[in-house]
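Collaborator request, handled under Task 6.
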Amino acid sequence: MRWFFGILGAVVVTGTLASILRNLVVPRGLRSALVRVLWLSARWLLRRVSVPVRGYQRRDAILAWLGPIVLLGMLWSWLLALLIGYSLLMQAVSGLPLLVAYREAGSSLFTLGYASGVRSQLTTLDFFAAASGPGVTALLIAYLPALYNAYNQREVEVALLQSRVSEPAWGPELLARQALVGTLDELRGLYERWERLAAEIGETHTTYPILLSFRSSYPNRDWLIALLAMMDAAAMHISLAPSAAPVAAARLMLRAGYSALRQIAAVIRVPFNPDPRPDDPIRLTFEEYAEAVDRVRRAGMPLERSAEESWPHFRGWRVNYEGIAYALARAIDSVPALWSGGRDFPATPIPPQRPEDRKPGTPD
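Structure tokens returned to the collaborator:
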């Protein structure tokens, strides 16, 4: 039995240390079973709590606790696993009763000393346990600045988008508003910035998947919805006005956007078709697209193609990212914006907040 406890304890300690390195140290998008279990469990609990709540804003306030819960769950899961592993190792090495070994391991793991100095055969394990507890806590503390730096970079760009399109973001609304104020030419720079942001999101959210559970400061603001709106705007722009649109910048942003979504989907195990055909079906209907085109036309955007002529081009772009975006929006409970798919909770799509259409020359 002591041999069995020794092998089991070594496996637990080794597996826990590997999990810590995988999540906090290795700069690569590795799948983490621990984060996935904590995420799904905490999400299930918060969604049960939010069942009686009416209105998305109140539900969002409850779901905002998901990120901190998962983060603390990681720390306590690692510490508990190390406590169990060292307890088993100490019992195997010393032959002490399991409860006494548990006390010895806990004293070493959570303090700078150990319970007794009379058992010299446990000194080495006591030292390892004493280093493990503070070491895990220090690694997590060092992990937080990198995590929140990536979060802040993401949220700043999403907040800056608010000056161009109301919340929640919607691609056709972005084009319409730029047409209303005569700043369609400025979209080139916006596409270029979001190409870089999409690449950063793909890198940070695969290296730190827990970022997916951290929500924006405002209920109707969401990084995924903002990225989806940017890709829809770029796809519509080059489909409706291919001569006037900044085609190169829009194409590069689109590719960076759906590449980032695919990287994230691969890490959190969301299935997707890596090579869809341009004529594959999408969930967005032509009628919805035609209404959006009419919105853009009435705002004053010069169109070179009609809705019917541009639909195959737009669909050929959207087929690359629609399925992944919808699945991710459902998984992270994004704000139910237009053209973003369904949710696991009852939700009516929320249109962007906007006043009556006005032009600069006619403020009345």
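The cover message to the collaborator said: "The CA atoms of residues 206 and 264 lie 6 Å apart. DSSP finds 13 helices and no strands in the chain. Please let us know whether this matches your experimental observations."
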